[in-house]
Amino acid sequence: MIGLNHYLILSGLLFAIGLVGVVRRKNLLMLFFATEVMLNAANIAFAATSHYYGDLTGQMFAFFIVAVAASEVAVGLGLLIVLYKKHGSLDLDGLSTMKG
């Protein structure tokens, strides 16, 4: 039987994978993907804990995280398109020196 520990271990592994992706990536698009993996790991932990305790609070937090993630994707992809049109690349090293 799959218990709370299994879900929390899965959530921890996904969060660690996302954190490694955030730290090691040089491409902004991959950075956004790694951030989404981290947010999904938090969603799994909140939903599993909520189900385990029989309370809907964790599921409500997960719902709000989904809403924040959707707005992050909308704004972030818009900014990525503008940066790609201006610089021709999404490499973080090339964008580290912002010039006005």
Describe this structure in words.
By secondary structure, the chain is mostly helical. It has a single domain, classed as Helix Hairpins, CATH 1.10.287. Helix content is 82%, strand content 0%. It contains four helices and no strands. Helix 1 packs antiparallel against helix 2 and helix 2 packs antiparallel against helix 3. The longest helix is centred in the last third of the chain and has 31 residues. It is elongated and about 55 Å long. It starts with a helix and ends in a 5-residue tail after the last helix. The model has no long low-confidence stretch (mean pLDDT 88).
Mean pLDDT: 88
How many domains would you count in the coordinates? 1
* Gyration radius from CA atoms, angstroms: 17 Å
Percentage of β-strand residues? under 5%
Main sheet: strands, sense, barrel: none
Task: Please report the first level of CATH classification, the CATH class.
Answer: Mainly Alpha
Brief account:
The chain is mainly α and 100 residues long.
SSE layout:
Blueprint (H helix, E strand, L loop, with lengths): L3 H21 L3 H26 L3 H31 L4 H4 L5
Features:
100 residues, mainly alpha, Helix Hairpins, 4 helices, 0% strand, elongated
